[in-house]
Amino acid sequence: MSEFGLRLAISLTQIAAVMGIVVVTVLLLTLAERKVLGWMQDRMGPMEVGPYGILQPFADAIKLFFKEDIIPAGANKFLFTMAPVLCLIPAFIGFAVIPWGPNWTLEIGGITVKPFVISDINIGILYILAFASIGAYGIILGGWASNSKYSLLGGLRSAAQIISYELNVGLSIIGVVLLTGSLSLVEITDAQAGWFWNWYLFALPAPQIFAFVVYVISSVAETNRVPFDLPEAESELVAGFFTEYSGLRFAFSSSPNTQHGPGVQVMC
């Protein structure tokens, strides 16, 4: 195999592994959220599929895959179809610059490889913020192209909320960038290696505890989770910007909820 072919095979393997981890993590966190909400409401939560309902997210994924894909008669079919893709890709593409393990270097077939890092670029923070912002376009287009007043209002609310809280997210990360002296997520992670007291969250002389709190709250707001779920207010907007979506497109258009989750490690 040529050097280019080997590099391509290694990169595709890394991408597939990260995508698998992300998808499974989202499924498990969805189950955890439903269980916690059930306990808070004196319910059991999902219990039917698998032991204690642990296979429920996988059953939901299979159900969404086989559900009928409905396009409303008055919708703009092209934009209605492309909007979920524009939501999904930015939500996942940011994981390419996040280190998933130690910054090791291995030799494979004469090629130097970092097994836990897909791409180490010196503007990793800006890369994530830039691509996360693109998701707002998918939300607006999905709400408008659905030709539904509920979807349009939900899309406008969600985009406004995402854009508003991105300023807080960006500013809360500046302290970490200044302490590290780099925008690379690999270097930021290496600078905090070791036990938890080495994390910038606690490190002296400038602990980032207040910035961390602002970051977490803003991230929850950007992903439209409770109590910042105004764009998806079921009592007035049904399901928000993805009201008219079904099947896989419904799952894709819901993907902005995963955008900022792993970025919390930046502040730690």
| Average residue pLDDT | 81
Estimate the global geometry from the Cα principal axes: globular
In percent, how helical is the residue content? 55-70%
Report the sheet with the most strands, covering strand number, pairing sense and barrel closure: 2 strands, antiparallel
**What is the N-to-C order of secondary-structure elements (H for helix, E for strand)?**
HHHEEHHHHHHH
Spans where pLDDT lies below 50 across 5 or more residues: 256-268
Helix/strand structural class:
mainly alpha
- What strand order characterises the main sheet? 1-2
Number of H- or I-type helical stretches: 10
Describe this structure as you would to a colleague.
58% of the residues lie in helices and 2% in strands. By secondary structure, it is mainly alpha-helical. The protein has 2 domains: 66 residues; 182 residues, no CATH class. It has a two-stranded antiparallel sheet with strand order 1-2.
Give a summary of the structure in a few sentences.
With 268 residues, the chain is mainly α.
What keyword list fits this structure?
mainly alpha; two-stranded antiparallel sheet; 2 strands; globular
Q: What's the arrangement of secondary structure elements?
A:
Blueprint: H1 3-40, H2 56-66, H3 77-93, E1 106-108, E2 111-113, H4 124-145, H5 149-180, H6 185-191, H7 209-222, H8 234-237, H9 247-253, H10 264-267
Antiparallel strand pairs: 1-2
Helix pairs in contact: 1-2, 2-9, 3-4, 3-9, 4-5, 5-7
